[in-house]
């Protein structure tokens, strides 16, 4: 019986050393396993939440880049309209300026219509429909762009803050789960050496007993 018990202990220790885990089956620590599995589920949930936030940030960055391009075009249109009011310009000069403005309007419409992330439109279509006939129209369009960029920036800051908190929670949960589930290799190696010694001692003891019993039979 002692040999069997030592052998079972040796197998448990060997399994823990080979896997690096203290809990390899429910019988090793039922309560610990239940807590560990719950923590693992929580860390997986946090990992997915982090990925979701990172994807959202990527989308916001694409949106901000597109809005930045639109804003640049709007600024150029405003400058050109002010330039066209110069009384020294000829009709031909103003026509050339209008051609530039029309090209910039086309660039804005293209950016608005093509800016997407995973097939989701990123910019309000009304911005591309604005005819931008007057400087007032341009100013209102620029205000709209600034508002959208501000909202996107605020959301990105919030998401980045959430990610930091979720990463800290993930790290803490992972460490706590590791403390419950993982094995202490040094301790298990000492346990393995002890089991080896005990098993050898048991074998030697039984061998001596068997030899003694055999001698007793011979002398009877």
Question: Overview of this structure, please?
Answer:
Residues 1-7 have low confidence and may be disordered. The chain folds into two domains: 1-20 and 184-220, no CATH class; 26-182, f41 fragment of flagellin, N-terminal domain (Up-down Bundle). It is mainly alpha-helical and 220 residues long. A two-stranded antiparallel sheet has the order 1-2. Helix content is 84%, strand content 2%. It starts with a helix and ends with a helix. The protein is rod-shaped and about 120 Å long.
The major β-sheet equals:
2 strands, antiparallel
Order of helices and strands: HHHEEHHH
Identify low-pLDDT runs.
Answer: 1-7
- CATH level-1 class of the largest domain: Mainly Alpha
Number of strands: 2
Shape: rod-shaped
Tell me the helix content. over 70%
- The number of helices is 6
Strand content: under 5%
Estimated structural class: mainly alpha
Distance between the termini: 28 Å
Q: Determine Rg (CA atoms, Å).
A: 37 Å
CATH superfamily of the largest domain: f41 fragment of flagellin, N-terminal domain
CATH architecture of the largest domain: Up-down Bundle
């Amino acid at each position: 019986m002692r040999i069997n018990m030592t052998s079972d202990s040796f197998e448990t220790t060997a399994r823990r050393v080979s896997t690096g885990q203290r809990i390899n089956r429910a019988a090793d620590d039922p309560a610990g396993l239940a807590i560990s599995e719950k923590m693992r589920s929580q860390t997986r949930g946090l990992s997915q939440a982090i990925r979701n936030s990172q994807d959202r940030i990527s989308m916001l960055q694409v949106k901000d880049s597109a809005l930045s391009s639109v804003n640049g075009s709007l600024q150029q249109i405003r400058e050109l309209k002010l330039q066209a009011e110069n009384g020294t310009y000829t009709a031909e000069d103003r026509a050339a300026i209008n051609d530039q403005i029309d090209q910039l309007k086309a660039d804005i419409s293209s950016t608005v219509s093509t800016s997407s992330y995973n097939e989701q439109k990123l910019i309000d279509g009304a911005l591309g429909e604005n005819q931008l006939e007057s400087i007032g129209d341009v100013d209102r369009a620029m205000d709209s762009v600034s508002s959208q960029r501000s909202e996107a920036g605020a959301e990105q800051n919030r998401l980045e803050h959430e990610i930091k908190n979720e990463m800290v929670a993930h790290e803490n949960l992972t460490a706590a789960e590791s403390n419950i589930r993982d094995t202490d290799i040094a301790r298990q190696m000492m346990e393995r050496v002890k089991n080896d010694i005990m098993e050898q001692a048991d074998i030697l003891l039984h061998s001596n007993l068997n030899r003694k019993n055999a001698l007793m039979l011979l002398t009877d």
